[in-house]
Amino acid sequence: DGSGFGVMAQYYDINGDKVGTEFSISKEQSPGPQSTDSAVLSNGNIVATWHGYGLGGYSDIFAHIVDADGNDINSNFKVRTASWIFEDPDVASLGNGGFVIVWDSFEESSDSNYGGIYAQLYDANGNTIGNHFKVNTSTTGNGNPNILSLENDDFIAFHDINPIAPVHLLVIPKQHVDSFNDLNPQMMSEMTSFIQDVTKKVS
Q: Taking a C-beta distance cutoff of 8 angstroms, is the pair 117, 104 a contact?
């Protein structure tokens, strides 16, 4: 992409042999991509995400979707961009066909250490679902966000970047809600059941 770095991909068969040639996902629109992650969507497409440093040293989060043959589904799109530093994105596919991207944000957060974990939901075509939202309530240090492969049709579980217990998870609904207080009684009951199921799986 002109920066000397790029997000590349290569397909392999079940035996680990290369299928086709490597191809670029980041293209030319993202300077110095770093901290890449990818996920296979339920329709077989692949979404990749990374952060790249732009003007002024600020870091933007980018993503791109390709099909199973490596053909572009869309162009690079920015997950978050502003006069803050966004780093360490992580992506997971969702049972509804879409995906969620989480990242570490400095200065955007009101945490005492200027770091917070944020997330954005997307449909299968890369269209945003609702606004981005903060996942953690507070932190004692910065870290890399990570998404667990634990979900159902309505909720998904996250690792806390700075756990205060041997197992410390964050759970969010896939349906966008502005705050915890906006959960209706049915969603609250379903979330409680999901948390119980997750607890059993990770204990």
A: yes
Q: Would you state the pLDDT for residue 11?
A: 84
Q: Among positive and negative, which fits the CA dihedral 197, 173, 48, 97? A: positive
Distance CA 168, CA 111 (A): 18
Which residue reads 């969010």 in tokens? 172
Dmax (CA) of the chain: 52
pLDDT at 92 over 50: yes
pLDDT, residue 156, reads 80
| pLDDT, tens digit (0-9, with 9 covering 90-100), for 64-90 | 999 888 888 988 888 875 656 677 888
**DSSP per residue over 65-133, as a string?**
EE-TTS-BSS--EEEE-SSSEEEEEEEEE-TTS-EEEEEEEESSS-STTSEEEEEEEE-TTS-EEEEEE
For 40, 84, 114, the CA distances from 98, given in Å and listed in that order, are 10, 26, 30
Question: What is the C-alpha separation between 62 and 33, in angstroms, rounded?
Answer: 9
- Beta carbons of 114 and 86 less than 8 angstroms apart: no
| Mean pLDDT value across residues 101-123 | 71
Residue 88 in contact with residue 104, Cβ under 8 Å? yes
